[in-house]
Amino acid sequence: MTPVRDITVRAEADLVAQVLEVRVVAGQPVAAGDELVLLESMKMEIPVLAERAATVAEVAVAAGAAVQPGDLLVLLRER
Amino acid sequence: MTVSTDASTTKPADRSRLRPAARLETLLDAGSISPFAEDDGVVAVRGRVDGLPVMAFCSDATVMGGALGLRGARVIVEATGAAVDEGCPIVGLWHSGGAQLTAGVHSLHGAGEMFAAMTRASGRVLQLSVVLGPAAGAAAYGPALTDVVVLAEQGRIFVTGPEVVRSVTGERIDMASLGGPEAHGRRSGVAHIVAGSETDALDRARRIIGLVQRPRRPHAISSAPARDPGVHLPSRPQRAYDVRPVIRDLLDAPDEPTGFEEFQSAWAPNITIGLGRLTGQTVGVVANNPLRKGGCLDSASAEKAARFVRMCDAFGVPLVVLVDVPGYLPGVDQEWNGVVRRGAKLLHAFAEATVPRVTVVLRKAYGGAYIAMNARSLGATAVFAWPQAEVAVMGPEAAVKVLHRKALAAAPADRYDDLLAELTARQVHEAGGMQRAIELGAVDKVVEPSHTRAAIASVLRTAAARQGEHGNIPL
C-alpha cells in the first residue's frame, strides 16, 4: 500500500491588498482553479485560486482585512 | 503558494541509469550518437535531436559523484567551442557535486575555463542545461550561465549544500528544500522549466531545441483555428483574469499541453513568458498576467522578461507582447529592491531587440509600464489594440484626482461622487481614447480579438528576419 502523505499548502497574499471577499470555509473541499479569496489592489479585483484539489484547513483572514505580501490567507491540505 | 512535505520520495536509483551513455541516449535521437571526447568523468558526444545536429555532454554521476576536475572541465570547453564552430546547440546533462576537492586549484581553474567558454558561446549558439541530480558549486554556475535550465524532479542546485549552510548559519534544511524544484521553480527563478521525471526533463529540452532551431515548421498551419481569445477577458474591466488561455488561443495547437512552452511559470508569475508557434513560426510570448499582482510590473518580473527578450533576440525568435498592465507595483520594498535598476533592463532589452516584435494591448496599458511592454517608441514592429483597450499615463479616475484635486476638494460631500464620475467620463473621452494613440502612431490599429492571430501572422510573414548580435547575460 502506498503511504498517504498530507501536504500543507499556504495560499498567501502576493501584494499589499484588502480582502474583498472570502469564498471558502474551513472543511470545504476545493478543486484546482477554485477561488479562495478575492483581493483588491491597484484598483483591481484579484482572485486567489487553489492550485490543486485540496481541503480548506483554515481561513486566516476576513473581508475588510489589510494584507501584506506573504500573509497567510487560507491553509489548504492536499492528499 | 508554498508547499511543505513530510516525506521524501527519493529512492536509490539504478546505477546503470546514472551513466552518461544511458542519459545521452535518452536525450538524443536513436542511433545518432558519435563520440566527441571523454576524460575524467565527463563524456561529450555529437548527436541529433529531432534530426537537428547538437553537441551534448554529461557528467558521470557514478564516478566521485560527478565531481568536476580540470580535464573533465576541458571536455566541456572543447565541446562548447566545437558547437560554436559548427553553429549547433549544446546540451549539458548535470549530476555533479561540484569541483573535485582532491584536485584543488586545478579543478577551480577548470571550472573557470568552462565558465569562460560558456560565456564566449553565449548568444551565438543555444546552450541548454538539464539538471538531473545534485549540481553544486561549479556545477550550479555552469547551468546558470546557459540560456535555459531544465530541472528534473531529482535535480538539486545550490552553491553550498545543507551541511555548510547549517555550520555557518545554523539553518537546518534538506537538499530538496534548499535547491529542489520548489526552491528554483518558485523562489529563485534559477530553473526555467521544472520537469517531472528525468525522461520528461530530457523531452522538454528536446522540445525547446526544436522550437529554437526549427523556426518554421515544414508544414505550417496556415488556417487560423476558429478561436476568439477575447472570451477570456472578464466583462468587468477591474476584474483580474489568467492571461494563459489568451496566449494559447493565439498560438497553434491551443489544446495541446505542448502548444505553449512556458518558462519560469511559478516565479514572478505576474509576467508570463514562453515559446510557441504561430502559423508554424516560432515566437516568444511576453504577457502581463493580471491574475497575479494584477499584472503589475515589478523588479523580478521585469528582469524575467528582459532576459527572455534578449534570449529570443539572440536566436532570431520574433516576439509577441500582450499588454494588460496597471503600472509598476508601488512600494518601499520595490524601490529599495531596485525596481528602477531592474526595470531598466526590460526597457533596454526591448529597445535593443532587432527581431520582429508585435505588441497587442488587450485591455489597458498605463504609464511607464506601457512603455516597458514594447511600446512603439521602443521600436515595436507593429502595435495593435483590442476595441476596449486604453493607453494612458494612469487610469482615468486616478488622473482626475490629480488634475482636479482642488475642484474635488471644494465639492460638497453629496456632490463628490457625481463630480468624480462626470470628470472621469470627460477624461476617458479626452485623454484615454485610442484615437489619440493612433494619430500619434503609437498604435497602428484596433483589431478584433478574433482577428488578432491573423494580424500578428501577417506582420511576422512580411517582417525581415533579423537577430541580435549580443550575448545572453543571465540577468
From TrEMBL, chain B:
Entry keyword set: Ligase
Pfam families: Carboxyl_trans
InterPro entries named in the record: AccD/PCCB, AcCoA_carboxyl_beta, ClpP/crotonase-like_dom_sf, COA_CT_C, COA_CT_N
Domain of life: Bacteria
GO terms assigned for molecular function: ligase activity
Residues covered by the CoA carboxyltransferase N-terminal domain: 1-224
Ranges where the record places region Disordered: 219-238
Name of protein: Acyl-CoA carboxylase subunit beta
Principal EC category: ligase
EC number: 6.-.-.-
Residue ranges constituting the CoA carboxyltransferase C-terminal domain according to the UniProt record: 218-470
